[in-house]
Amino acid sequence: MENKTKPNGTAKLEVKGKSYDLPVLSGTHGPDVIDIRRVYGETDHFTFDPGFTSTASCESQITFIDGDKGILLHRGYPIDQLAEKSTFPEVCHLILHGELPSAVELQDFCDEIKQHTLLHTQLDRFFDGFRRDSHPMAMLTGIVGGMASFYPGAMDSEDLEERRLGSIRLIAKMPTICARILKYNLGQRFVDPRNQYDYASNFMNMCFSVVAEDYEINPKLAKAMDRFFILHADHEQNASTSTVRLAASSGAHPFAAVAAGVACLWGPSHGGANEACLNMLHEIGTANRIPEFIEKAKDKDDPFRLMGFGHRVYKNYDPRAKVMRATAHEVLDELDLRDTPILKVAMELERIALEDEYFIEKKLYPNVDFYSGIILDALGFPKQMFTVLFALARTVGWVAQLNEMLDDPTQKIGRPRQIYTGHAMRDYVAIDKR
Length: 434
Ligand code: CMC
Fold this sequence. Notes:
Layout: E1 6-15, E2 18-26, E3 33-34, H1 39-43, E4 63-66, E5 71-74, E6 77-78, H2 79-85, H3 88-97, H4 103-114, H5 121-124, H6 136-146, H7 160-186, H8 199-208, H9 219-231, H10 239-248, H11 254-265, H12 273-284, H13 290-298, H14 319-334, H15 341-355, H16 357-361, H17 369-379, H18 386-406
Antiparallel strand pairs: 1-2, 2-3, 4-5, 5-6
Bound molecules: carboxymethyl coenzyme *A.
Carboxymethyl coenzyme *A binds next to loops.
């Protein structure tokens, strides 16, 4: 990656009476950054930023978010345009290679993915080691990490062809693994990939067809699946992506680094929120109970939060949530489920929260997970699978960010520091004297 930041003046840092000039750098969009790389060397002080709320951890040319305006761009293209006009494989190509593909390039890309969807038969045996009722994310973490053992060549980050193939393999095999996880939980036989289908339809076929009966692909539902994948494809330096970058910064195998990203995504503050949100909507059950839950969310002494609301970066409506809401309506209409109580509760909850002073003041808007659970539930996925579907879609983002990091000449092993507040140095005390 060619570094493209531009110098844009300096910032003054004064530490205990001594003044230091720090370079200020500009990117294409977004706030300028104060380059603090020399701060420790020159001032003997660290900067302190738990949770990275003020820290840009890398330079990136993949995704841009303006949280105040509710804008999300992949390689410059707005997410709503991609969701409406593009397909997931096309977005994968864009995120990985930087440009929308020509028709021939897209065909080649899709064909190559189809060449790599099968799993090594030995990999199929991993599944038997898990409890039948294992959480799908526990299985996914283990299986993605275990895949590294089949492709040792991908460890060599200097081998660009191996690296390219590794990226394709991850994107191609993820749907096969995720569908097998669902089948394993259900106690059904695995369904192999079929090359006549597009990416989303193939995944749905592997999830929902059974030996006794073919699964009829409904193009509207397959489109909704594809759109779900587009909306989750990348999201700049979120927790799981930063985890992937940090893990890979040591030179770890890229499949193992992606497995670390899967583990991070599992949590309810990140990818697990869609499952938690649907649970919450079911728990609320009817619109008349909404005020009770709003009050719980506002109560400082109650740990309850309105799931699917709020975001570290978006202080406006999450642009992905807008598309999700429209897609939820389309899916429920198609399945004749438009009068389902859960959709009514979600819409009413959204309306009440958006008019509530607490949510207005804290700029808490629906995020991508608010409506996605309703869609996935209607498509027939069990709740426990929701985060797995997020991971499937995010794989392209993880892989693209990992590759970008490996190509960045300023890349170093990630190694944050700390402010130590434990015991001062003291002498060892013999056991009989304690
Ligand atoms: N319900 C009620 N209050 C909330 C909520 C919520 N969902 N989210 C934030 N707040 C309050 C929070 O209590 C805090 O109040 P105060 O300033 O009085 O202490 C204030 O808003 C700021 O919250 P924060 O936790 O400091 O903000 P954060 O940026 O660290 O957290 C978040 C972001 C997404 C973890 C949080 O909003 C949250 O827990 N939301 C619910 C879980 C959820 O939907 N997560 C999915 C995120 S989107 C998917 C993804 O990109 O991974």
